[in-house]
Amino acid sequence: xxxxxxxxxxxxxxxxxxxxxxxxxxxxxxxxxxxxxxxxxxxxxxxxxxxxxxxxxxxxxxxxxxxxxxxxxxxxxxxxxxxxxxxxxxxxxxxxxxxxxxxxxxxxxxxxxxxxxxxxxxxxxxxxxxxxxxxxxxxxxxxxxxxxxxxxxxxxxxxxxxxxxxxxxxxxxxxxxxxxxxxxxxxxxxxxxxxxxxxxxxxxxxxxxxxxxxxxxxxxxxxxxxxxxxxxxxxxxxxxxxxxxxxxxxxxxxxxxxxxxxxxxxxxxxxxxxxxxxxxxxxxxxxxxxxxxxxxx
Amino acid sequence: xxxxxxxxxxxxxxxxxxxxxxxxxxxxxxxxxxxxxxxxxxxxxxxxxxxxxxxxxxxxxxxxxxxxxxxxxxxxxxxxxxxxxxxxxxxxxxxxxxxxxxxxxxxxxxxxxxxxxxxxxxxxxxxxxxxxxxxxxxxxxxxxxxxxxxxxxxxxxxxxxxxxxxxxxxxxxxxxxxxxxxxxxxxxxxxxxxxxxxxxxxxxxxxxxxxxxxxxxxxxxxxxxxxxxxxxxxxxxxxxxxxxxxxxxxxxxxxxxxxxxxxxxxxxxxxxxxxxxxxxxxxxxxxxxxxxxxxxxxxxxxxxxxxxxxxxxxxxxxxxxxxxxxxxxxxx
Lengths: 297, 332
Hints:
By secondary structure, chain A is mainly α. Helices cover 73% and strands 2% of the residues of chain A.
């Protein structure tokens, strides 16, 4: 057993921190997409993360489909579930008040996590790493190869989303709705349809995060909640609504969380993300990359 | 204005009915379990009445009240059991501590709005909950904190369900009295102005920031008292009671009862406490699912609260029927 030097320790925590940070970033992007379309906090995002992991486990472990087929099937299913949440719960709502809509998503979250507990039982389940369990040596750190998949898939997802929002008509229309929903509808963009696509897309992104983290953390009916809330914290930290803000916020949260858990105390690991978030909200409420919300009269 | 005395009369009438039913109810309830449920309702009412001032009257949102409930309960438990303080003194100190926490949290976060406020209060709740679980030497950790003494007055100990029933409901009655008085005062009018439009209230000279913080601290203190009573009632507390789901639950009680009325949330409180007791006696899983579904449907179709929603529905139907009979008469 070789002794880990301090710098090896630090690189270990930074690398694993980048891994969990990527997950927070993806989940944060999911929160942002829906925030931009509707201005609400979509708590069902936490369920999307959990469902991604659980469905992939089911397709792979119980139906014995190949891992990558299970991966895509899980993501497709959650994308569909995301769209269902919008069609079934958000659109029919009588009141469009933000408070009411947030509580509808809380109700939907409880319904989905309860159903997941009924369907899969309370015990956590897991997936194998995508390419073997043999640990890698990187910069003196020992890394599960799954982390490379997490980095790669996160980068690809962010690039695709960026292209989607900057190059496609639908993506541009969604940005128009985010900037000014009323003006967007005046030029013929269907706000309802963009909201539907937003929910579906945030389902996709949440499910991707849920699947790729499962080999490392396992998944259970409530595993999405803490991950999801940290993703939300990442989004707010980076500046709510800003995609790259969520990436920066997520990575910072992940690294700080792992560093402080490894070097100071692991008992309060889950509290650290929220402590950082509170401090940011206290001193710079628009987040790191946010432009600050202008209050409209 | 004849309206104001009318409302006062109605409130007085309700208070009287409320007090009488509290006094007489134990004569009809002989099962310990029902008394226990009644006591849980009573405790929840104290929290909900305070929270209603913040949500229903000031128009803000907090998903952190379980933390205040927990700080109240744990401060009382630790001071009395570990340090031998008198329970009543520790309730007072817990109130003071919770109020200070609310002030520290409130001053920076109440400037935020909407999603940020939700996140800040929720984050605070999660942090406090983790401290309760992890600070084992002081809080007893996830196994909980046993051996909390009952409350006493002189030599009289509140140690049976019936005695505790009267104690808990005395406090909920007092909390209702305080909030009725507050709502009907200058502060209450300022809060309502704040809720309908913060900017208008500001231009009319209402210092909205100050009022928001005051009402936040007040509602946190109400919640702290309920938490302390809870600790001295069950004599055992564990962190699970004070997680974010309790915060969500009490907000739901306020919203379901109808925002901005004192009596509506009491109804929401009773309804949801009984419902969740009933459901969890059947199955914990079904409890979560049904709770989620009910919350969704109420928020989707009766967003003004069950009572207001049903009354409006009834009125609309009456108007429709009137129009139809008039049409029928006209065509005759």
